[in-house]
Amino acid sequence: MIMDEFKKDLSIVISLFNEEESLPELISWIESVMNKEGYKYEIIMVDDGSTDRSWNIVRELSTKNPSIRGISFRRNYGKSAALYHGFKAAEGRVVITMDADLQDSPEEIPELYRIITEEGYDIVSGWKKQRFDNKLTKNLPSKLYNATARRITGIKLHDMNCGLKAYRNEDVKNIEVYGEMHRYIPYLAKNAGFNRITEKPVQHQKRKYGVSKFGLERFVNGFLDLISLWFLSKFGKKPMHFFGFTGILMFLAGGIMTIWVIAEKLIQQSQGLAYRAVTDQPLFYLALITVILGFQLFLTGFLGELISRNSIERNHYNIREEF
Questions:
Q1: Which of 159, 176, 161, 175 lies closest to 122, judged by CA?
Q2: What confidence tier does 277 reach under pLDDT thresholds 50, 70, 90?
Q3: The architecture CATH gives domain 8-235
Q4: Which of 32-36, 78-82, 188-192, 216-220 has the lowest mean pLDDT?
Q5: How far apart are CA 148 and CA 68, in angstroms?
Q6: Any alpha helices (H) in the chain, and if so which ranges?
Q7: Are the C-beta atoms of residues 148 and 156 closer than 8 Å to each other?
Q8: Domain coordinates of the chain in residue numbers?
Q9: What's the predicted TM-score (pTM) here?
Q10: Which of 80-94, 120-134, 271-285, 307-321 has the highest mean pLDDT?
């Protein structure tokens, strides 16, 4: 194995929440694959505030396998927080993420590792071409969600939210996963300059124990998070380009409408024609609202620019190499 400066070949990061039934089988399955391939590896298990015996089982498993490392949250913070701390602790040359519910197969890990190390990709995302989830509540919304994500991010992945992914260690050390942004790690990586992204069809298993921890609301939240990420990536360091430009357009449009209404009234009055008072015309109030909104948007852009210029991240850039 090629080690370079890394202590291990692989770091397998697993976020878990109330998965006590599946953990022994999952670890046994991973150990079988790792021993067969001869990897130097670590398994980082992040317990996201489980209320069952999951953490006790992690501790028991770690006494049998010293490659297991554990992180336990005092309460449930979400998958993004778990992955953030898992990435922070990872020491492997390649970082693999997978779910703890046995729906991701560890048998896929060797090929994911090979694609990263031999083909030079930054990220390899799993693609569950054949799924065993409920078609109405998961499959169809997932297809719509992924189509929207491809359109907005420009990343041609069929399954952006697949938990089984492989990354270079450098990738995960240079991105910040927060909120519920774990769905868009490839997009975060792309915005950080790691744009060699591909996908690999992977086997999807039926859930063996328990129930899914995610409901339909994740698709609504996911869409809102996607819009937030898109905006931040485009205008995060130049808010005036969005708010200022939009504000100027609205201000000008409102001003033109106001002048039109007043000019029309004056022309009709000068020609002795019947006319309506300016304040009796709905267009006049619409014009005033447009002017006010335009001014407010411009001020929002100005304030955003002041905040951006005083941010400690304003001159933070990822450098590929330097000599």
A1: 175
A2: confident
A3: Alpha-Beta Complex (3.90)
A4: 216-220
A5: 37
A6: 23-37, 54-64, 79-89, 109-119, 140-153, 169-173, 185-191, 217-235, 239, 245-270, 282-309
A7: no
A8: 8-235, 239-309
A9: 0.74
A10: 80-94
